[in-house]
Design a protein that fits this description.
By secondary structure, this protein is an alpha/beta fold. The chain has 10 helices and 8 strands.
Length: 244
C-alpha cells in the first residue's frame, strides 16, 4: 500500500455539526416545491435528512422529482438551489458548531505536519467555507484545498459520484491510494471508495448508540475500511489503515 500523505475530510456532520441545521432550510423549500405541484406529502428536516443525508440540495431536488413524479426546469432548479444556499449559510453562520472532539485532532494533525489536509464536500463551496470559518477550522485547510461537488467541478454533481474526490486528488497532486477519506454518510463513503480512496467511517454525529451501530453497518457495506464513533479514535483508525 502507498504511503498515506493526505487526509480528505467530509464537512457536514464530520467536521461541523451542520447537517440538521441545513436540512431545516431544505425542508421548507422542499415542501414549497411539493405544494406548488399539488403533492400532499410534506417533510420535516429530520425526515428529509434520513432520506438524503450526504447529498447537496441539487441532489435532494433530483431525488424529490424522481420520488414524487414531477419535473422542474433547469432554471427552476437553479433558483431553488440559490435560495436554499442563502438560507443555509445564514443559519450556519449563526449556529454551527464543530463536531464533538474534532478540534484537538485537527490541532494535533496541523502541528505534526505528517499529512496534508483538505475538505471534500457535496455542499456548495460558500456553505463549506462559512461552516469551517464559523467553527475556527479554516486555519487548518489551504483555501484552494476546500472542494465542493456543487461548485468546484465543471458540471455540478453530488456524492456518491466519485468525481469530486478524483478532482481533489488531481488538484492536490496525490494518487487516491495516498489519501484517506473520513465520511459519515453512505453516499459520501461510496464517493470516496469509488474513487479508490481508503475510507474511515465516522458515526459519532448520529444520536444514540443504536443509530450509530446501524449507520456503522451501512458505512461498512458501502466500503469503509474502519469505523470510529469518537474523534479520539482517529489515530488508531489511521494506524489500522496504514498497517494494512
Amino acid at each position: 500500500m502507498p504511503k498515506i500523505t493526505q487526509l480528505l475530510f467530509d464537512c457536514d456532520n464530520t467536521l461541523v455539526l451542520s447537517e440538521e441545521l441545513a436540512f431545516e432550510a431544505c425542508a421548507k423549500l422542499s415542501n414549497e416545491m411539493l405544494e406548488k405541484h399539488n403533492i400532499a406529502d410534506r417533510y420535516s428536516g429530520p425526515e428529509l435528512m434520513i432520506t438524503f443525508v450526504g447529498q447537496n440540495f441539487r441532489g435532494v431536488v433530483t431525488g424529490l422529482q424522481q420520488k414524487h413524479g414531477f419535473k422542474l426546469s433547469d432554471s427552476e432548479v437553479d433558483e431553488y438551489v440559490s435560495r436554499e444556499l442563502g438560507k443555509v449559510i445564514e443559519t450556519l453562520e449563526a449556529k454551527a458548531e464543530p463536531c464533538v472532539g474534532v478540534m484537538p485532532v485537527l490541532e494535533e494533525l496541523d502541528k505534526s505536519k505528517k499529512y496534508g489536509m483538505a475538505v471534500v464536500s457535496s455542499s456548495a463551496l460558500s456553505r463549506v467555507q462559512a461552516s469551517v470559518k464559523k467553527v475556527g477550522q479554516d486555519k487548518f485547510f489551504p483555501k484552494d484545498h476546500i472542494f465542493s461537488a456543487a461548485t468546484s467541478l465543471p458540471v455540478p454533481t453530488t456524492k456518491p459520484d466519485p468525481a469530486i474526490y478524483l478532482h481533489a486528488c488531481k488538484v492536490i497532486g496525490k494518487d487516491p491510494g495516498e489519501c484517506v477519506a473520513v465520511e459519515d454518510s453512505r453516499s459520501g463513503t461510496l464517493s470516496a471508495v469509488r474513487a479508490g480512496i481508503p475510507t474511515i467511517g465516522y458515526v459519532g454525529s448520529y444520536g444514540g448508540v443504536i443509530k450509530q451501530k446501524e449507520m456503522a453497518e451501512v458505512l461498512k457495506e458501502a466500503g469503509a475500511k474502519v469505523m470510529m464513533d469518537d474523534w479520539s479514535q482517529f489515530m488508531d483508525c489511521m494506524a489500522q489503515i496504514e498497517a494494512a
